[in-house]
From TrEMBL:
Organism of provenance: Amycolatopsis rubida
Keywords noted in UniProt: DNA-binding
InterPro entries: HTH_MarR-typ, MarR/SlyA-like, WH-like_DNA-bd_sf, WH_DNA-bd_sf
A biological-process GO annotation: response to stress
Domain of life: Bacteria
Domain HTH marR-type: 28-162
Residues in coiled coil: none
Protein name: DNA-binding transcriptional regulator, MarR family
Record flagged with keyword DNA damage: no
Gene Ontology molecular function terms on file: DNA binding; DNA-binding transcription factor activity
Amino acid sequence: MNTAPRDAVDDLVDAVRRGGGGEDVLGAKSLSYRLRRVAHQLELAMRRELSAHGIELWELEMLAALKRAPGHRLTPGQVMTAVELTSGSVTHRITRLEARGWVRRDKDPDDRRSVLVSLTAEGKRQALASFELKTEIEREIAKALDPETIDVVNDALRRVSHHLKGKDEQ
């Protein structure tokens, strides 16, 4: 049962149907198209709001990973895992955050060969201010759905995420 007005994805699926696409794939195509579009729209909204406050989305994600960590510090490898980036990307981003005064690199006292990336006081302040802004964006998005639907969508997306991660690990 569709309760929302038609959107551009419905038009795309109709075009696939007219082109001979089988009914067995139309639901999957519709889901895939819609997930990509919603993710893109969400990212654009977040980037727009955050950049107006002097922070990029990737910066917030890095600060958030550090803020959640015990002692607000991680090794670069742990940052890489937390934000799902390559080591080269993480190194570059840490350097940029360090230049802004939001993080610092320290020798790991338990392993002098290793480095720990830590939030500075300014990084913590920036993170907290940005979290509030991001939460407001998320609340606005959630207004489109009732709480029960949010739970159902979250469960479904969690299953899709686990399925895709399982494919990546094969």
